[in-house]
Amino acid sequence: MSVQRLTPSQTLGPFYGFALPYEDDSIIVRDGDLHVTGSVYDGAGQLVPDALIEILQPDGRGRFHAEGFHGFGRCSTRPEGHFAFTTVKPGPVAEGEAPHLAVIVHARGLLLHLHTRMYFADETEANATDLVLNAVPEQRRHTLIGEATEDGVRFDIRLQGENETVFFDV
Questions:
Q1: Can you tell me the distance from the alpha carbon of 132 to that of 148, in angstroms, rounded to the nearest whole number?
Q2: Which uninterrupted H or E stretch holds 36?
Q3: In this predicted structure, what is the pLDDT of residue 2?
Q4: Which domains are present in the chain?
Q5: Which of 64, 80, 100, 157 is the most exposed place for a label (fewest CB within 10 A)?
Q6: pLDDT digits over 18-75, tens only?
């Protein structure tokens, strides 16, 4: 019997351009009241105009794949390096887990996509007990916490350099 191996991630090709667009890509909930915005920066502090950001989240009650809610969004950065999603604030999935968005970053120069999380600044109590967030050194946790804005949250992603976003090896 032969050993089955995982299919490796591909950095280049095959290219299926027709499969990249996702219907309503950045709109996770059409009438969502949370706007997640941000920018992607490279190691030199320059905006990345061609990154692809994906988020996965539960609904407001912490349920994945709830009826009428798919919880997935995909958005390319604009030429000026900005991205935006419309959604709802996720609920905690499990006891002791703070509400957060799972974020995946695809960008030029990366051999593999990057995984991170965005936590909410107004969830101080839940953030204080989240096992994943608290496994990150205290001086770096701020890179995982979105800043409250008038209509949502701003979450900038820094691929390298000072204040590099924490990425997880998953």
A1: 21
A2: strand 34-41
A3: 67
A4: 23-158 (2.60.130.10)
A5: 80
A6: 555 555 566 666 667 899 999 999 999 999 999 999 999 998 889 887 787 788 888 9
Burial label for 123, CB within 10 Å (0-12, 13-18, 19+), is: middle
Summarised one tens digit per residue, pLDDT across range 60-108 is: 889 887 787 788 888 989 888 899 999 999 998 898 899 999 999 999 8
The amino acid present at 168, given as its one-letter code, is F
Q: What's the rounded Cα separation, in Å, for the pair 116 and 143?
A: 10
Q: Concatenated DSSP letters for 109-154?
A: T-SS-EEEEEEETT-HHHHHH-HHHHHS-GGGGGGGEEEEETTEEE
What percent helix, strand, coil does the chain show, rounded to 5? 10, 30, 60
> Which residues, in sequence order, are CB contacts of 149 under 8 Å at separation 6+?
35, 37
User: Which residue intervals of the chain are DSSP H helices?
Assistant: 124-129, 131-135
Place of tokens 């419309």: 86
Largest CA distance in the chain: 59
Span 112-134, pLDDT tens digits: 899 999 999 999 999 999 999 99
d(CA 138, CA 140): 5
